[in-house]
Specification:
Number of helices: 10
Shape: globular
CATH superfamily: NAD(P)-binding Rossmann-like Domain
CATH architecture: 3-Layer(aba) Sandwich
Low-confidence stretches: none
Radius of gyration: 18 Å
Strand order of the largest sheet: 2-1-3-4-5-10
Order of helices and strands: EHEHEHHEHEEHEEEHEEHEHH
Largest sheet: 6 strands, parallel
Mean pLDDT: 97
Oligomer: single chain
Helix content: 25-40%
Distance between the termini: 35 Å
Structural class: alpha/beta
Number of domains: 1
CATH topology: Rossmann fold
CATH class: Alpha Beta
Bound molecules: NADP nicotinamide-adenine-dinucleotide phosphate
Length: about 290
């Protein structure tokens, strides 16, 4: 297949690009050099390539900044997503768009599946939901993938890397105890995305590693992997952080539609978490 990956330097996009290349697909990666906010540039770059499949992993991912700078974040997360969908429609190719657990409010008291009604509580979630709706009305051949709590080798920082670094530097860790989700390994997700994109079963999917935990429990698991005292991570409540963005308190994603298709579930998060923390510690430069 001829595959375009947008956001190819990011945490997920870099893994998707690697997975595509290792499966022998013809890969066309783009990151900042193709600003997805510029619809004309998107058309001009993609149309001559005639791709079979486009992965849109490019996004404005700082959720607190999205609250402070809604226009700027929506340009990428909504307008950019729409530009890519329009180009895909013109090229008659399939699109994989990455969305988020933040389309839910986290108040259901159980994991969310794909049949649950979204109800975002922050601007990032609202703009991603608007993009989901726009894509599904513009383009039939879409896979909308909701995921959460990514950790990967490249891209901007992530929670696991931050906790590992702070623990290694000897900091006392104050970690949110009232936010729950499923940590998800970017390379596991990339493999699952490729499998799913081969099915032709277009639609919305929740894709995360199995298992769920609070941020505090995750930090303590990282300390345990590092051979450090788990009690070094002490609980705080989310509201004590005083951050601008409200977050869903309990939003693990049930990968219901993946089971429906009979596709293999992703591993329990503990397995890739251990591999990742050990990889980080092998070379401390990876922590920064
Ligand atoms: N990280 C998570 O925990 C998480 C959770 C749920 C959903 N998601 C979604 O998963 C997807 C991948 O996230 P990620 O963690 O891989 O993000 P990431 O590491 O920040 O990667 C996003 C990439 O897109 C680039 N980009 C930003 N604006 C762009 C633009 N206008 N045009 C072209 N490229 C642009 C970024 O460049 P710069 O670095 O220079 O900005 C970066 O290389 C996103 O859609 C995100 O919303 C992520």
């Amino acid at each position: 297949m001829r595959v375009v990956v947008l956001g190819s330097e990011g945490q997920l996009g870099s893994e998707v690009a690697e997975a595509c290349a290792s499966r022998g697909h013809e890969l066309h990666p783009f990151d900042r050099e193709l600003d997805i906010v510029d619809g004309r540039a998107v058309r001009e770059a993609l149309l001559p390539l005639c791709p079979d499949l486009v992965f849109n992993c490019a996004a404005f991912t700082d959720v607190d900044e999205a609250e402070r700078r809604p226009l700027e974040s929506a340009r990428v997360n909504f307008l950019g997503a729409q530009n890519v969908a329009l180009a895909c429609r013109e090229m008659d190719c399939s699109l994989v768009f990455i969305s988020t657990d933040y389309v839910f409010d986290g108040r259901a008291g159980r994991p969310y599946n794909e049949f649950d009604e979204p109800h975002p509580v922050n601007f990032y979630g609202r703009s991603k939901l608007a993009a989901e709706r726009s894509i599904s009305s513009l383009l039939q051949r879409h896979y909308i993938i909701r995921t959460q709590w990514l950790f990967g080798k490249r891209g901007r920082g992530n929670f696991v890397r931050t906790i590992t670094r702070k623990a290694r530097e000897g900091d006392v860790l104050r970690v949110v105890a009232d936010e729950y989700g499923s940590p998800t390994c970017a390379s596991d997700l990339a493999q699952a995305l490729l499998l799913l994109a081969e099915t032709g079963q277009f639609g919305i999917y929740h894709l995360t590693n199995q298992g769920e935990c609070s941020r505090l429990e995750l930090a303590r698991e990282i300390l345990e992997i590092m051979g450090l005292d788990e009690e070094r991570a002490q609980p705080i409540l989310y509201e004590e952080l005083g951050l601008p963005c409200e977050r869903p308190p309990y939003a693990p994603l049930d990968n219901f539609c993946l089971r429906l298709l009979g596709l293999p579930p992703l591993r329990h998060y503990r397995e890739p978490l251990r591999e990742y923390v050990e990889w980080l510690l092998e070379d401390p430069r990876r922590l920064y």
